[in-house]
Amino acid sequence: MLTPKERLRMILDGQNADRPACICPGGMMNMVTSELMDKVKVHMPEAHNDARQMADLAKAVYEEGCFENYGVPFCMTVEAEEMGAKVDMGSHVYEPHVVEYVIDSVSDYKRLTPVDITRGRAKVVLDAIRILKEETEGVPIVGNLTGPISTASSVMEPVVFYKELRKKNQEAHEYMEFITEQLIAFGRAQIEAGADIIAISDPSGTGEILGPKYFKEFAVTYINNLLDSLQDEKMGSIVHICGQMSPVYKEVNEVHSSALSFDSIVPMKEAREHLKDRVLMGNVSTYALEFGDPDRVKMLTRGCVKNGSDIISPACGLGMKSPLANVQSILACLKEDA
């Protein structure tokens, strides 16, 4: 029987495995629920700031039969906080979020603090990866980065940011280069600490918001700059983009990741038709995972497999009130049908 790491490696390499892999990367695609925390007696927000607790929660996701990977961190605010944004660390039922921006315009980017991987929550994440690398084997460790557009629109007002992509085009590119440099440094450090895969989630970099022209000019360009600057001796990379893909399938196909992940608004059958040769990941409805029942989740899981998904995962981050039985039913279904 294949280990979870062997199975995922085969799929990312474009080979046929015994069944689809079942993962939830972390980062924006948080996989930790309140019920899981109560069961293993490790809780947020404390685990966001403590490497031992972060690693233990990541382990619990696998050990309790939810997903076949470890993944840290459990939010998408680390990079923004390290660059100076003020973050509400959330609670037992909601995730951290930015509450105060740092700059007012792309022109002000030199006021941002570069990410320092030797301190703060960046160091917590790296230490958690080191713990997972030392204490586990056979299960892939996924490191996470907030995508370039989403990071850039987390340290300044997003509406202003989107307008300035056009109005201050050259300065916007300088800003995006700075942001991407910070993400490269954090991503390289995660790989060096022991991450097998890097997952990049860029929910603010959608084709719906940016349109095809700016999606290609900014989202695709800087995601690829990031991917191309990471070490390539590991298992691969995943890029998750939110929103409809119908206007930007051509542009999405230019993303250099090993796998592409979409949320539930994208019909997996449609994605497969447009992206015939790509490894696709997704996209079980997080609404169903929180408010449905195991039978509903299993039905959606089978639909994802039938329609061409290679890696089955939630369509987005789990609602933290999602019942554990619902979350566990994705993997249970794949094992039943294998």
Task: Note the topology.
Layout: H1 4-12, E1 21-22, H2 34-40, H3 51-63, E2 70-72, H4 78-82, E3 86-88, E4 97-100, H5 120-135, E5 141-146, H6 148-152, H7 158-167, H8 169-193, E6 197-201, H9 207-228, E7 236-241, H10 249-252, E8 259-262, H11 268-274, E9 279-281, H12 286-291, H13 294-306, E10 311-312, H14 324-337
Parallel strand pairs: 1-10, 2-5, 5-6, 6-7, 7-8, 8-9
Antiparallel strand pairs: 3-4
Helix pairs in contact: 3-5, 5-8, 7-8, 8-9, 13-14
Helix content: 40-55%
By CATH reckoning, the class would read Alpha Beta
Figure out the total of helices: 14
The H/E string reads HEHHEHEEHEHHHEHEHEHEHHEH
CATH topology-level name: TIM Barrel
Describe this protein's structure.
With 338 residues, the protein is an alpha/beta fold. The chain has one domain (4-10, 20-337): TIM Barrel (Alpha-Beta Barrel). Helix content is 46%, strand content 11%. It is built from 14 helices and 10 strands. The protein has helices at 4-12, 34-40, 51-63, 78-82, 120-135, 148-152, 158-167, 169-193, 207-228, 249-252, 268-274, 286-291, 294-306, 324-337; strands at 21-22, 70-72, 86-88, 97-100, 141-146, 197-201, 236-241, 259-262, 279-281, 311-312. The chain has a 6-stranded parallel beta sheet. Helix 3 crosses helix 5, helix 8 (169-193) crosses helix 9 and helix 13 crosses helix 14 (324-337).
